[in-house]
Design goal:
alpha+beta; 710 residues; 28% strand; 17 helices; 60s Ribosomal Protein L30, Chain: A; Serine Threonine Protein Phosphatase 5, Tetratricopeptide repeat; Neuraminidase; 5-stranded antiparallel β-sheet
Length: 710
Amino acid sequence: MKLSKKFLRIVLFYLATFHSIIFGQEAADFKRIGEKLFALERWAEAEEALKRYQQKKPGDLGVLSKLGICAYHLHRPQAALQYLEYVLQRSSRAAEPDAHYYYARTLHGLGEYERAITAYKGFLRIVSEKHPLRASVLDNLRRCVSGLKVRHNPEVALVENLGDRVNSPGDEFAPLPSINFPDRLYFSAARQNTTGGLRNEEGYEDPEKGRWCSDMFYTQRTASGWNYATLLSDLLNTPRYEVALDFTNAGQVLYFFRGFTLYSGVVLTDTAGKVAVENRPFESPMKPEEGDTGLFFASDSLLFFASRRPGGLGGLDLYYSLRTDTGWTEARNLGPPINTPYDETTPFLARDGRTLYFSSNRTESIGGLDIFRSVFDLAKQAWSEPVNLGLPINSPGEDAFFRLSADGQVAFFASDRLLDGYGQRDLYAAYFKQAREEQFAQRLLFTQDIQSFALSREAISMRAVALPTIYYQSDADLLRENNRRVFQQVARLANDYPEVRVLVHVHTDPGGAAKFDLYQGIKRAELVARALIEYGVPSQRIILQSFGSAYPVAQNALPDGRPVPEGQQLNRRIEFSFVQLGEPLPFRLTLQARPVPPGLEAYGATSLVERSKGLTFRVEMLSARQLVTDDALNMFSDLMVEGELESGLYRYCTGLVRTYAEAVALAREVKAAGFPEPIVWAYIDGVRLTRAEAANLLKQYPALIPYVRS
């Protein structure tokens, strides 16, 4: 194989650099060259030289401190701790501030937040108020506190490093799933033997102080894993920095960055199948020559990017722009709560047009940049408070460039996490237990006029749905052909919008004791659920609730006690509704019911709808698999039985209150009535919350805080 002249020059430089180390006899040579390489952040070479000095002159605390810092940067945290702990145990209190800092950073990187807090405070005690790292250490203290609160994301099956065929001791970042090839991933990397070699910020070759330029690569997933990374065409990769940014036009147009540094250059376009000389600058409000970064196309006519331009909230802010008939509109800041005085960057908007992922180093992160998620509320015309994606996607390191695959099963991102990395940043894949629903929901993009957010044309044409109420005389009526058509309509809607849950509410007229009405109702709900499952609705998305006769739409009897058959018939009904937790429905739903004759109106049903909106609490009295015959049920109001088809459990609940304190008080009454283990549950729009769901909704519903803490 013929070696290039450039490669030979680099080899000769390193041979000259290490000549005195290999053949010299003076320990001072090892120390001098090691410290020079350390200053150039050539961690591996610096470590080798300093280790040779340590062998000849053991015990130099300054050298041992630098060896610990090298081990930290080379992703060997245990070695870093050994060196740095040794130094800190033997140095004076005011000595080695770098050792204090990297000792804290190593503990932080390992997720040992309490020990890291102590170490950061130790650093602050020995440095002056003007120390350049003081502000970042104070922020890291806050991030450690966040780390103590952030929990494992239950939606994630596992996170995996893409391996040493893709990653290297260099810097891999900006993963970009292919649009046309499901098993192909594009990315960028600055590592040995890239086209530009080692260059300084002026763009000149500099084997001593230069850094590896980045090139564009791709890797292919095979049955045995991710294959070796392959460089894109030499016509695309040049001696400058190149970074693949995004695709448009169904994957036919590649947008990529080119510059003398990663922070100043131009965005170019390349059309698949065309020669590279046709690369043209991308004209848009994004100004990469001024440091704008993180370009993402939500569609061919909507782009996002990050910028430090004046007028922002501080640091990098996220902006967006729309393409109209006259060109791209002026960039608009997404504003709070998306942007903060910290950095927000690498945006990704899911296919639903409303779910935004981005990275931020705000103090709610657990390390540096963490990946957050926010959803645009079409009703409120505002973004929800961003939620940290939690472990194991985020880490105490820098986590960014989040991109979902087209099928929503996996997300790719870059991270410099300390424990399992090969180099600076590596590429990772997060596999989800279920496909992310935002990759399949109806696309409802947002735009902005001069004053406020407004729905785009797609949102204005939101689908309108009318669902009939089902009326029954007996159980045999439920599965008749006319009702099956309603079930099919409900199932089609549920399958079109996999992010929503289907609520089946069963009501009746008084047939006897409440315990019988409730139980017969939940059995009818099960018949409906099985029909929906036959039409493709997953059972875990169906919520069954029986309310007995407590919420009538019409009078069951006149004041003198005479029955009203017409009213009783109207109360024997099954109603459907849909809920998307914390978000408005992506369609307009109207429930069609038979009119109630004048003078027979009852308002129990209306009351239930109004009282169930938003956050409420109920008390589970007991759970059972058969009919509960305890007459103590009659002591309580707002009774409901909630069924779980898969487990076969029936949850008997009482109460419909607004605060956790009211629910706790009610639970005490339930216990006093002979139900030994009452449980308080929170509900949003009638949907019972798991603890994880409640934790994710704390910013939107602060009244959940005591519930989650309990």
